[in-house]
Records
---
Amino acid sequence: MNPIWAVILPLLVIPFIQFFGEKRNNLREASIIVTGLLLFLVNESIYQAVINGELAVSGEFVMMPGLSLALSAEPLGVLFGLLASSLWVITTVYSIGYMRGHNEQHQTRFYTCFAIALSAVMAAAYADNLLTLFVAYEMLSLSTFPLVTHAGTDAARKAGRVYLGILLGGSIGLFLPAMVWVYAMTGTLDFVPGGIVNAEQFGPGLWVLLALFVFGIGKAAVMPFHRWLPAAMVAPTPVSALLHAVAVVKTGVFSLLKIVTYIFGVDTMLATGISEWLIVFPAATILIASIIAFSKTNLKARLAYSTISQLSYIVLAALLASSTAIVGGGLHILTHAFAKITLFFCAGAIMVAAHKKDIRELDGIGRQMPITMLAFFIGSLGIIGLPPVAGVWSKVMIAQGSLQSGEVWILAVLMLSTLLNIGYLLPISIRAFYFAPPNAADSEHAPKSEPAAESEHTSDAAQQADSATPATAGHSVIQEAPAASLWAIVMTATLSVLLFFYPQPVIELLEMIQWR
Amino acid sequence: MSLSEHLPALLVVIPLLAAPLCVLLRHPLYAWIVALASSSLTLLAAYQVLMQVRDGSVIRYTLGGWSAPTGIEYYIDSVNATVALVVALISTVVLVYTRAISQKQLVTDKHYLLYTAWMLCLCGLIGIVITGDAFNVFVFLEISSLSTYLLISLGTQRNALTAAFRYLVMGSIGASFILIGIGYLFAATGTLNMVDLAQRIPEVQESRTILVAFSFLTIGLMIKAAVFPLHAWLANAYHHAPVFVTAFLAGTATKVSLYVMLRFFFSIFGADYSFAQMFLTSVLLPAAMAGYLLMSLVAVYQTDLRRMLAYSSIAQIGYIVAAISMVSVTGLTAAMVHIVNHALIKTALFMSVGCMMYRMGHAHIKSFDHLIRSMPFTVMAFIVSGLSLIGVPLTAGFISKFTLINGALDRGWWLVAASVLVSSLLATVYITRAAEVMVFNRNRVGHPQPSGMNEAPVSMLVPMWLLIGLSVYTGINGTETLAVAEQAAMQLLGGFE
C-alpha cells in the first residue's frame, strides 16, 4: 500500500464534513468514523507490508533540486500511524458525546481542522526525509492553532498566541536552521539507516546541531520550551486528548526518535557522546514537570504537566541512543498514548457530566461515575508504570537502555519520577472512591461559575467529610457521561490493559528498525 | 526577419505606444483596455524572450540596426529576462485588479492619467531591465521615476502629494548620483555600452575616476532600491499612494533597482573589483542586516496595514541585499529567487489590503475585527500570503528562506543565518497580529461593520488568488524557479560573454 493514501484519506473527508455541516451532524460524524476506519485499514496493510519485509514507498516529489517530498514506511512510522489512526476513530466517537454534551460552537470547523491535523500526522509518520517531516510538522502547528483558539475568548486567543509563538518560533528559529545546516554539510536530507551526519565533518558543532533539534522541535516540550502545552489546554477536551496527549506531542518526540536514528545514527551518537550533556534537559524536565503537576489543581493542567514529564522519557530514550532505549521510547509512545488519552477522556467526561474541572471538587465522584473513575485509575497505573497496565514495559526498557549506556543516574531519575507520578495521580482516584462527596444542599448553593467560591466550598466539604453520613452522600446516583464518550473511555482503558499482556507484536515491529 | 527577433524592442515599444494612446482615448474603460492589452502583450513577449534565453544563450539586440558603440544595444540573458517577466506579469495582474477599485477610489476624469502613467512606468521598468547601455539605464530610470511620482500623487488623501514630493526629492538625488556615476564611467572608458564597459574597466580600475563612479553608483542605486538606511522615501510612498499603485510598485520598482545593482556590481565592475577590492560586502551586509532586523521590528508596531507591509518590504529588500553580498552562486541564487518570490508575495498582500480598503475604506488593523466573516476570501488571501512572507513550507517564501540560509551557512556566516531567522520570527509576529484581529476578534462597539457576506468584486479576487496560486505553486515545485535563478547566478558571476 502506498503511504500517500494515509495522507490523502483524512483530507478526502473534509468535503463531506463541510457538506453535511451542523444540520446533518450524524452523517458528518459518521463520515469521519468511516474514514477513520479506512485509514486504520490502510495503516494496517502498510504494517503487514513492513512486517513481511516489503517496501511501502510513495513516489518522490521534487520540490527543489536535491530536496524532495517523499513518503516511506519504516517500523517507527508504522507504529505511530497505526496509533494515531486508531485513536482518531475512538476520539471522534468520544467527541460526539463531548461536543454535543457541551454545546460547543463551530463544530464543522473543529472537525475540519482535526482532519487536516490527522493528515499532517500521517505525513509526519511516513516522512522519508527531513524536509517532509518539517513540512508535516509545520502543517500540524498551523492546523491545530484554530483548535486551540476554538472558544474565541480572550483567554483562548492568548493561549493561541503562546501556542503558535513557541511552536512556530521554535521550528523556524531552530529546527529550520538545523535542517539547512544538515543539508549544507551533507547535501541530502534523506532518512538513512545509520544516519547521514559525518561526525568529523561537524566536529564540536555536532552537539549544537543536536541541541537545535531537541529544542527546535518544540512539540517534544522539553523545558524550557514547554509552555505551549499547558496553554493549549483551553481547547476542547477531545483536542487535548488526541492532539495534545497523542498526535501533536508524539509527533515531536517521534521526530526526535527518527532524527536520532536516521539522521545522526545510533553509532555516531554513542561514539561521539554528544548527548551526554544534553540529556540533563529531559531528565530535569521529567522531575520538574512532575513537581509542577503537584501544584496544579485543575485536572487538565495537571495532566498537561504529566504529559510534559512523560514526553521527556521518550526524549531521554532518544538521547540515550542505545537500541533498547529507542525501542523502549517507541513503545512508550504507544503505552503513554493509551494511558494519557484515557485520562483526558475521563477529565472531559467529568466536565460534561458533573461540570467539574478542579481536582478538589472530585471527592466521591467515583460513586457518581464509577466506570469513568475506574478507567481513570487504570490510566493512572499506566502513567505510573505499574502492572497490569502496559506503561510498565516501556519504562523497564528505557531503564535498561540507560544502564546499557552507563548512565546509572538516569535510573534514579526514573525511580523518583515514578514516585512523583504516584503522588499526583493516585490521590485523585482514591479521593474519588473513598472520600464522601460534598453534600447535596451545599452543591446547589455553590455558584458554578466562580471557581474561588467553589474551592472554598469544597474545602468546607472536605472538613465535613467525617461528619457526612452515607445518607447525605447518597444523593449521587449514577450519572455517567454520554454513552459515546463512555464507550471511548472503556476502549482506550481496555487497550491499555491488553497491551500489558501482549506487548510482543509491538516490540517485534520496533526491533525491525535498521540501526545501521 | 521574423517577429520573434524583434521581441526585445517590442517589450519596450508596446507600453510606450500604449501610453499616448491612453491620453488620446481619454475614456476610463478604453484606456484600461488598451493598457491591459499592451501589458498582456508585453507579458507574452517577456515570456517568449525568457524561453529564448533559457538555454543559457544571450540575446544582443541592436536597436534600429545601429551596432554597439554608436547605437543602443539590448543585452538579455536569464537574469534580466526573469526580472522582465516578473515586472510584466505583475503589471498585467494588477491592471486586471485595478479596474474595480480605481472606479471607487479615483475620480473618473483621472483614470486615463492613471493608465498613461502606468504604461510609461512599465515601459521604463522593462527598459531599465533589458537595456545593455549604461546611459539608457538612466533614461529609462527617469521615465519610470517620473511616471511613478505621478502615480503616487493620484492617492486620495492630500498626504499623497507630500509623499510623492518626498519621493521625487529622494528619487532625483538617487537618479543624479547614478547619472554622475555613469558620467564618470564614460569619462574613464569612453564607452556607455555595458559589455564594452566591462572590458575596459579592468584597464583603468586603479584610477580614482572609477572609484568615484563606483561610489556614486552604489549610493544612487541604494537609494532607488530603498536599502536601509536610505529607505526613508518608501514607507510614505507606499502608504499614501493609491493601494493598487502600491501593489504594482511593491513588486516591481525596487526589484528593478536591485537588478541594476546586480548588473553593475557583478557584470560591469565584476565581482572581483566590487567585493574584493572595494569591500562592498562590508558596506552592504551591515546595512542589510540592520535593515531587516530594524524594519521588521518597526513593522510590528504599525497600525496601518499598508505601512506595516511597506516596512516589511524594506526588510525583505534587506534579505536580498544580504544574499547579494554573499558573492557566491548559492547567495546570488537566493537573491534572484527572492526577487521573484517577494514580488509575487508582496503584490498579493497589497492586493488583499486593497480588497479590504475597497469595502472598509481604510486599512487600520484595529478596526478589522472579525473581518473573516464578511470577507473570507480576502482574509484567507492575506493569511496565505502572510504565511508565505514568513516562510512556512509549501509556500514560495520557504524556498527563498531555505536558499538564503543555505547560502549564509555556505559562507559560514552564522550571524547572518541567525539574524534572518530572528527577522522571520518578527514577521510571524506582525502577520499573526493582523490575522488574529481579522479572524478571532469579535465586533466591538464603535467599529460598525457591514453584516453578512460583503466580499470584494470577483474581478479583484481572481487576479489576487492567481498570484497566490502562483506563489504557492512555486513553493511546492520550486525546481523551475531555482533552475532559472541558478543559471542567472552563474551568468552574473561569469560576467558578459
---
Amino acid sequence: MPGPLIESLARQGITRRTFLKYCATLASMMALPPSAGRAMAEAMAAARRPSVIWLPFQECTGCTESITRSHSPTIEGMIFDMISLDYQETLMAAAGHQAEAARLDAMQDNAGKYLLIVDGSVPLGLDGAYSCIGGRSNVEMLKEAAQGAAAIVAVGTCAAFGGIPKANPNPTGAVPVSDIVKDRPIVNIPGCPPIPVVMTGVLAHYLTFGSLPELDDKGRPKAFFGETIHDRCYRRPFYDRGKFAKTFDDEGARNGWCLFELGCKGPVTHNACATAKWNGGTSWPVESGHGCLGCSEPDFWDAGGFYKALSVPADPLRIAGVAAAAGAAVGVGLSFANRAKKGAAKKAHQPVTLADLEKS
Amino acid sequence: MTTAQRVVVDPVTRIEGHLRIEAETDASGKITRAYSAGTMVRGIEIILRGRDPRDAWAFAQRICGVCTLVHGIASVRSVEDALHRAIPGYSIPANAELIRNLMIAAQYVHDHVMHFYHLHALDWVDVVSALKADPKATSALAQSLSGYPRSSPGYFADVQKKVKTFVEQGQLGIFANAYWGHPAYKLPPEANLMALAHYLDALAWQRDAVKLHTIFGGKNPHPNFVVGGVPSAISVHTRGGGQDATALNMVGLQTVQNVIRQMRDFVDQVYLPDTLAIAGFYKDWAGRGEGLGNFLSFGDLPSENFWNPDSYLIPRGVILDRDLTRIHPIDLDADNEIQEFVSHSWYRYSQGDAQGLHPFKGETELGYTGPKPPYQQLDVDKKYSWMKSPRWQGKSMEVGPLARVLMLYASGNVQARELVDTTLKTLDVPVDALFSTLGRTAARTLESKILADAMQGWFDRLMANIKAGDVRTFNEQYWEPATWPKHMQGVGLMEAPRGGLSHWIVVDDARISNYQAVVPSTWNAGPRDAQGQPGAYEAALQDNHVMHDPKQPIEILRTIHSFDPCIACAVHVTDPAGEELVQVKIK
C-alpha cells in the first residue's frame, strides 16, 4: 500500500481509514477474524488487478443488473480498482470478433489465475443449440473457460442450481454449472437475483485470500446462507405470537404481521435478505408485504406455489389461537424450542420443514 | 476497397441477451441484406403451463432482468383481464394503479438512462479521446448545457485522471478491444470527457433510482407483484410504526418522493442536455436506420384504470407508412390482426408454417433446423432464429420509444409536441429526421422527460388518497381460484421501455392452459415472415448503412443499439425436440 485503489479512493474523498473500515465491516459480516479486514484491504489495493471473466448463458441479465446496484463496493469501484473485468457482455465496449478475442486473450494471459463468473444455466439438449454465443454452444464455452480458471463463481439460482430453465418440464435440458465442471472449486451464490453485497463479499474474500469462503452442503458461502430468512425476520415476533396477515391488504398486513399464511417461504429459505436487505438497506420482500419466494433454494420454482402456506398445519387457526391465548411467554419458549430443533437438524444436514417447527 | 461480403456480429454486446446479426454488403460496403437471430431459448411459456395463474408473474418476470418489472406487470394484468372479462366490474384499487404507474415510469427512466450511458454511449463516445480533453473547457461546455452541479473543472480533471491511471495500468477490462480512434467517432475530446463523467455518474444515480421499486416491491431487480393489486400494504395509519409496519410508511413514501425528484433532476440536467449535445455531432445518423415506417403502441399509464385506454398517458394505436395524420385502431381479439409467424423461426405449427396464429391460439413446438454448433454461418434462406415474427394485419411493426413518441405527437399531446419541435429546432433538422437511428435514440430521451414529469402527479394523488383515509391496495375478492369461472382468457398489455408488450393467458379449471408472451424485441428483432418481409432491425440495417470497415462494424452496433435489444425477452418459447406438446391435466 498505497496502490492505485487507495489513491483513487483518496481522490474521491474516501480516506484510507474509511476504506479499512469498509474492509473490516465486510470481514465481520462474513464472520472473519479482525486481521482479515487489513488483509482484504491490502489485497484489494494490489498493483495488478486479478482478471475476471463473466460468461452469460441461459440468463435474464438480472444478476448483472443486481451487481450494478452494489453500494459498497460499487460496480465502478470494482471495475476501476479491484478487478480487471475482461469479459462481460452487458458492459463491455467490444462486440463480435473483438469481444471473443478479448476473452481468449484474458484466458491466455491469466491461465490458471482468472476467476470465472457464470450466470445462467447451461442447456444440454440439441447438442447445446438451445443457447449459442458466436456460433458455439454454452457447454463448450464453459468447459473451455473452466480449464484455466482458478475458481468458478456461479451467480444466481440458474447457474447455481439450474433455476427457471430447469423448472418442470425443463424444455431445454438445462443444468447448473456444477453438473458440468467437476475439477475446479465452485462457489454457488444463488438468489433470483443474488443480493449485491453477497456477490461482492465473496469476490472480496477471494481477492484477499485467494480461496473461496467456507461453503455449506449446497456450495453456498455459510456467511450469507447459514441462516434462514425466518430466523432473522423482523416479523418473527408476530409468528411467535401467532399473528398472521390473511390477505395483502388487511389490518395484519398493514401492521407488518407474519406472512406465513400468504405463502412465505422464509422458514425454509437460506439467504441474507432479512439482515443485508436490498438496494442500500431500503427494504426487502417481506418488509414490502410479499412473502419470500424461496429464490435461493434449489428447485424453488417447483415447490408447490408461491401463495400456498408451507406444509399447512392441520388447523392453522388452532395454532394461532393457542399462541395468542397463551401470550408472549409461550411464544418465546416455542421459539427457543424451534431453534434447538433446527440446530440439531442442521448438524445432521436435514432439511427443516415448517412442519418440524410446528411440531416442536 | 472491399468486395461483397458477409459481416457477422456475434455476440452483439451491450444488450440484454444473446443476439447475432449477419449482414451482406455490396462492393462499396453498403449493407444490402441483414438478418437478426436470437440464439438462446429457455422455454418459459412451456414451463408456465399447468401452473397457478397467480404464480405466473414470477415466472414471466424472469423473462428479463433488465426491464425487470414489465413482464410481472403484463402477467398480473393478463390474469386480471381474464377476471374482468368474466366478472363484470372486476378491477383493482386506484392506489394499486397509481403505484404501478410509478413503478412503470421509474423503470422507464432508470432503464433509458442506463441504456443511453452504459449500453449505447460507447458507440458515440470515444473513451480514449477523453484523455486529451481540457477539463476547464469541458467544464465550460457542461455549464453551457445545464445547471448540473457536478460540472466544475476539478471534477472533470478528477475523472480524467482516474481514467488515465486506469489506461496506463494497461488492463483495459471492459474497455478493451473497442473501436477507439475509429473515424466514425465525431465528438471533440471535451464532449467525450463530459459523457464519460456522466457514464460514471449515471451508474451511481441508478443505484438510488431503483429504491422506488424496493419500497413498493421489496427488491430490484425482480420486485414483487400480486394479482389484484400490489403486495405492499400501506402502513401510514397504523399505530405501531417502526417495527410494526411495512416499508410503505411515511419514511418509505419520503424515499419515493426523493427518488422522483432525483429522476427529474438527472433527466433535466444530464440526460436530456447530453442527448442533444451528442446528437448535434451525428446529424448524418438522422438519415438512416429506420426501415419499416410502421409503428405500433398498446398504450399505457392509465389515469383511471387498465380497462379504460382513453385514460392512458401513452395512447394506443398504429401508424402506417410514416403518416402521422392517421392513427389506426387495434382490435386485440381479431384473429387476423395480431399474429405470430414462424416461417423463418425454429418452430413448427400444426397447420403449416406459412400461416400466422393469434396469440390466444398460439402454438409452440420446437423445430430446430439450424446448424449443429459450432457453426460459422446460419442458413438465412430457411429458418434462422429462436424468435417468432409478430405482425399486425400482416405488416411488420416497429415498437418502442420512437413508436410512442410518434403516437403522442400524432395524437396531439402538448408536451410531446413541444419537446419534439424544440429538439428538431435545436438540431436544425426536418421532421423526417425522427425516422432514423438518431430519432429513435432521441425519442427515448424525450419520453423519459415526459414520464419523469408525470410521476409527481401520480405520487400526489396517492398521497391525497392516503390522507383521505383510502389505503386500499389489493382486491381480495376473487383471489381464491375456487371463485373463478371454469374457463377464462385475458391479455395483459403494457408499454415496456422497449415497446408494446402483451401476455396472453388462457385458464382452464384455475390452471394455465396456454401462455403466450408477444414482446417488444420479438416485434423489433424477429426474422422475416412468410412473405419475406424483414423485421424492424433487419429493415433498419438495410436503410442506408455503408460500413467504413466491415471488420469494425460500429455502424451495425449504432443502429441495433438504438433499439435497446432485449433478447431474452424476445426468445423464450420452446418445446423439447420431438416431444409432444405438454398436455395439461386438470385434477
